[in-house]
Amino acid sequence: EAQVTQNPRYLITVTGKKLTVTCSQNMNHEYMSWYRQDPGLGLRQIYYSMNVEVTDKGDVPEGYKVSRKEKRNFPLILESPSPNQTSLYFCASSLMPDTGELFFGEGSRLTVL
Amino acid sequence: AQSVAQPEDQVNVAEGNPLTVKCTYSVSGNPYLFWYVQYPNRGLQFLLKYITGDNLVKGSYGFEAEFNKSQTSFHLKKPSALVSDSALYFCAVREGKLSFGAGTTVTVRA
Q1: I want to staple A34 with a disulfide (CB 3.0 to 4.6 A). Which of A46, A65, A90, B24 is the partner?
Q2: Is any Cβ of chain A less than 8 angstroms from the Cβ of B35?
């Protein structure tokens, strides 16, 4: 089954404790992206990757890091989480970055205390 | 700069009635337009897209959308809504990067 898998789905952590949200896709997509969803703001892009070893900042990259060492994986790293990073996070992938539809993971709900 | 607006936070309709979810956009060139749906506790799912060609685009679950260049709109429509269509709907526009609207919550009452 074609899918984007995120882990963990739910996480409660404390300020400053490094965490990683993993994302993996099995569709051989070149394009991958991270979004955060906040009420009334829709989805905002954090980082995206056009291909292996190619990453770039989205609209709200501050406080986040990513890496793309393999085509299928695109982890999101919060080196020192803060309460304003409490949000619902989505990983997505696409075959064609411009015209292709995005396939989304189920989401990771992060709470930073 | 590109932008996309969904002017209604909520849309309420009775089952069997037509459903319209509005979307307007602002771009400097030719846009690529998308609609996604999000069911509770799920990720977004692709419904349909307009890239070029026929202004009326048909998508999943009986939804369609009409691209109107003069009004810079891309409204989502369904002729007869179902209770199961209750969800959060997002319009998105791509001109270079992809931008999402804030979302419209659709409630279909039985």
Answers
A1: A46
A2: no
Concatenate the DSSP letters of all residues of A8-77 into one string.
-SEEEE-TT--EEEEEEESS--SEEEEEEEETTTEEEEEEEEEETTEEEE-S--TT-EE--SSSSB--EE
Q: What is the DSSP letter of A98?
A: T
How does pLDDT run across A70-80, given as a tens digit for each residue?
999 999 999 99
A chain contacts of residue B42, beta-carbon cutoff 8 Å: 106-107
CA distance B82 to chain A (A): 23
Check residue B110 and give its pLDDT: 95
Chain A: closest CA distance from residue B105 (Å): 11
The per-residue pLDDT of chain B, averaged, comes to 93
Q: Which residues of B touch A41 (CB under 8 A)?
A: 102
